[in-house]
Amino acid sequence: MTHRLLLAPLLAVATWCYGQCTTTLPADAVIVDDASPQFVGGSNLNYWVCQDASETIFTGDNNHIWIEAGAYVSAGGDYNTIYYRGLVAFGLMGDFNTCYAENDGPVQNLGQSNAVIICGAGQLTYAYDSVPANGCGVVGVAEEALAGIGVYPNPTSGELTIVTHAAYALQLRITDLHGRELLQRSLDGSPRSSVDVSALASGLYMAWVVTSNGVVLRRPFVKD
Questions:
Q1: Could you tell me the residue ranges of all domains in the chain?
Q2: Rounded to an integer, what is the distance from CA 165 to the centroid of its chain?
């Protein structure tokens, strides 16, 4: 288990937090599974985020948040404890949060004094003995929508290259964390396309690609 502290520029003082990579989801967990963009603003609560949740931003403080693989969410509050099993980019936008993750690559620190504890691939374990009966129907699923697309460099400061593995890319949409469309481009129908994103502000975005077989693929990326 690796401990890593992510600091924002010019921050001089920070505090480490340590913990275990095995955790039990509580019976009173609030289920978050909406695929539509939303803000979740509660504080001092337990949240269980299902794999279908998309473009969800947590703005409250002092929460415990368990996030399943496949969910696309961000945390903007402070003093939260977060368990993250996914490979999708996760925006840690608040301050003084503690995040347990299987991999360090997806965690994008956009706040200050956030402690990130890397458990290792497959080493962040959730115990489901007490979970609510109406909770996530399937847990730990792979991010199927991500399997057929790659974007690089990620993060990027200018040009973003989109690579599709099983079909040709026909159209690109880029949205922010609020679901607002910031860019739309017709692509040339090749398996590799590039687009200039230098005009975007620094932050976390989602690229949506429509392919020649009618499938919509998604991939998060960070603009420096």
A1: 2-127, 147-223
A2: 22
Cα end-to-end span (Å), the chain = 28
Question: Residue 178: which residues within 8 A CB-CB, separation 6 or more?
Answer: 37, 55, 57
Q: Which strands sit side by side in the sheet containing 192-196, from one edge to the other?
A: 149-152, 159-164, 192-196
Residue 19's pLDDT band (cuts 50, 70, 90): low
Under the banding of pLDDT at 50, 70 and 90, the label for residue 187 is: confident
SS3 123: coil
Q: Are 24 and 48 in contact (CB under 8 A)?
A: no
For 187, the token pair is 């692509």
Reduce the DSSP state of residue 220 to 3 states and report it. Answer: strand
CATH class of 147-223: mainly beta
Closest C-alpha to 139, from 26, 33, 28, 40: 33
Q: Which residue has the higher pLDDT, 128 or 157?
A: 157
- The verdict on pTM exceeding 0.70 is no
